[in-house]
Amino acid sequence: MADRPGEPRATGPKQASVGVHGITETLTYVQAETGTVRGVRTLLALNQVDGFDCPSCAWGDPEPGHRKHAEFCENGAKAVAWEATRKRVDASFFAQHTIADLRGRDGHWLEAQGRLSEPMHLPPGGDRYLPIAWDDALRLVADRLRALPDPNRAVFYTSGRTSNEAAFVYQLLARRLGTNNLPDCSNMCHESSGAALTETIGVGKGTVSLQDITDHAQLIMIVGQNPGTCHPRMLTALEQAKRRGAKIIAVNPLPEAGFGRFRNPQTLRGLAGPGTQLADRYLPVRVNGDLALFAGLNKALLAAEETAPGTVLDHDFIDRYCDGFEQAAAAWQALDWERVQELTGLGRRAVEYTAADVMAADSVVVCWAMGLTQHHNAVPTIREIVNFLLLRGNIGRPGAGPAPIRGHSNVQGDRTMGIWEKMPDSFLDALRAEFGFDPPRDHGWDTVESIRAMRDGKVDVFFALGGNFAAATPDTTVTEKALANCALTVHVATKLNRSHLCHGAEALLLPCLGRTERDIQAGVEQFVTVEDSMAMVHASHGRLAPGSPQLRSEVSIVTALGRELFGDAMGWERMGRDYRVIRRHIEHVVPGFHAFEERVAQPGGFMLPRGPRDSRTFPTATGKARFTVNAVTAVRVPDGHLLLTTVRSHDQFNTTVYGLDDRYRGIEGGRRVVFLNEDDMKTLAVSAGDLVDLVSHYPDRERRARDFRVVPYPVPRGCAATYFPEANLLVPLDSTAETSNTPTTKSVVISVQPATAPG
Ligand SMILES: Nc1nc2c(c(=O)[nH]1)N[C@H]1C(S)=C(S)[C@@H](COP(=O)(O)OP(=O)(O)OC[C@H]3O[C@@H](n4cnc5c(=O)[nH]c(N)nc54)[C@H](O)[C@@H]3O)O[C@H]1N2
Ligand SMILES: Nc1nc2c(c(=O)[nH]1)N[C@H]1C(S)=C(S)[C@@H](COP(=O)(O)OP(=O)(O)OC[C@H]3O[C@@H](n4cnc5c(=O)[nH]c(N)nc54)[C@H](O)[C@@H]3O)O[C@H]1N2
Ligand SMILES: [Mo]
């Protein structure tokens, strides 16, 4: 990728988050992209009961009466401005730029050109995209899909901004065609959480509500998550929790600014005062050391119980609701403290003090995100966290439970709607009953399997509803070639990105409405629905005039394609004209959506049922919550190598780079940096500012990412960090988490070598 090495400056990690600086920076960006009046009007509709859902993260909204006039964060504001920009990428843009030219630009430049504004077609052998009429474009896709010798030669990718309504009709289209090839960004995100939670508590989602965090939890652990950047509104909830006396423990190899003082920009106190110190304890765990840490905590809790029987564990809960305790306890007894210390990089005392904090708290919530899910042992790590919660009955009561904090604003809802390559038979049965066709039963391909299939020539049509497949997935070089192997690639998108340039023999670029825009079908304004991290389902009403008259909604594109492909026996046209028809189907097919239309009309929407939380029912294989035995492992790092984790900067949303600064980590003006421990720098004989290559050594071959500046940083010894997606080419396609098959983008074994000239 032509991501030229800027000349980043490093000023060291910051101790505090948000504050006035953040607001001015955001307003400048909003103004530059949208012009002020449009910008401010847009922002005020954000996350209000009659406004649109923030397209950025999946953090939950406060109850309707408790919303601030400005219920958004710095990064939500950027996401909205990014979508509401006045710049346009139209036919004249593509006439001026060949694909080869565009492939030479970096992702930041591509998206900065503005909104895609008309459908475009790259004919076989063409060197640039040309305009095409909507009807012709949809007919082309339908023709190619119909001509497939086997429906499994098509792949339908989804990114997590897609609404419930669009996701539902999209999975319906794929299954009606006859395939379960529905990979999504969740395969790279919280798949490990889903797998671990389904196995142990019977539901693949968190069980915690926003009020559990703000009003009830006595201890909140934030593990492998960077709320100051990725879920800034969570800081407001944590501040509320602190004010009523809750404790907070952060577990992270990097001392993120969000754990320090928080200056709430939405209160006068926050703007003027010193702010609230959020974390009471910070554990600088080694990258991939979390399984060992939680096993160590469980060992410490068990030991304390043996010293003072009946005071630590919740035996009543364990006996009534759980199984597998004895085996798990035996494993903790056998666990060696030295191993815990070696793998976590933390002293035994630090673990025992933390266990004491846990014992002092009547209710504990554990929040986590990508710091846990993208490792080989991600699923056992999260199972071990469930063990930790079960030991003290920290599930199914106020202020307690597991809280995987989701990424994309509707990634959780998309799953609920059936975007998954292996939906259970109960869902497929309901689909058959509702629509009268036999959905395929064989599991489809997830993201990694889809890349392999494309690489191996098993895919003719790749269709993406949003996202940036080429940049977000691992092994960039392999993935880009894999996409080029397809006969047809189709992207429904708002902005131009790298994936649109890694095209098949023929390609289509279909521009769609964003979350902020008014969606009118057959003269009637429509709304869509989304589900947040806390399983609240609510409506989202676009407020802005569409960026171009040619934009169509995702629902309208998918239903029009459905009609073109299958005729109208299933009522595609009605679904596309009136989204209430889709919601009625959802009500019949998806559990928890009874009286959908009425309940979603209530301010704030409604909460989906969560058995473990509401009634301590655990729909697992045994009908009980399950303790598991998890071998305490971590990635083995050979001498002279480091374990690299890949993180987001404060100025990006996944592959969308808003700007080149990472304010909280003190990086300005560039992204090609690698954060190293100063002792490791001595051993490696590198100095601050040196230009180095990062080289990953997986058995199949060497992978090299060139030209990164060394930045000394307080990461644990033997660990390193750099930014996603620049580092994705280092992640081998075959290096995935057990069970969830999530790429191990947070543990890549690398060596740091002097920069070589591009070969
Ligand atoms: N502004 C902004 N908001 C976003 C996004 C964005 O890109 N920008 N992306 C959205 C999406 S899709 C997602 S999934 C979420 C992601 O939200 P996060 O998961 O918070 O984001 P990451 O930057 O991937 O960082 C994970 C955190 O884990 C830490 N970490 C890395 N390795 C380890 C480890 O081995 N152990 C532990 N304990 N910690 C580790 C990192 O230091 C970092 O603080 O955010 C969502 N919100
Ligand atoms: N190394 C490394 N790799 C990672 C991660 C990591 O932490 N490290 N994180 C992983 C995670 S958690 C995730 S979720 C994935 C993200 O993977 P994706 O979801 O595929 O990527 P995004 O960058 O979120 O997609 C951005 C693009 O979506 C399109 N878009 C934006 N809004 C809309 C909309 O409303 N509709 C439509 N149709 N298109 C829209 C725009 O064209 C934009 O360019 O990346 C994964 N990859
Ligand atoms: Mo994500």
Automatic annotation (TrEMBL):
Q: Which InterPro entries does this entry report, sorted A to Z?
A: Asp_de-COase-like_dom_sf, MopB_CT_YdeP, MoPterin_dinucl-bd_dom, Mopterin_OxRdtase, Mopterin_OxRdtse_a_bac, Prok_molybdopt-oxidoreductase, YdeP_MopB
- Record's superkingdom? Bacteria
Keywords attached to this entry? 4Fe-4S, Iron, Iron-sulfur, Metal-binding, Molybdenum, Oxidoreductase
Q: Provide the Molybdopterin oxidoreductase domain boundaries.
A: 115-491
* Cofactor section: Mo-bis(molybdopterin guanine dinucleotide); [4Fe-4S] cluster
Q: Residue ranges of the Molybdopterin dinucleotide-binding domain?
A: 642-748
The similarity annotation says: Belongs to the prokaryotic molybdopterin-containing oxidoreductase family.
In Swiss-Prot or TrEMBL terms, this protein is called: FdhF/YdeP family oxidoreductase
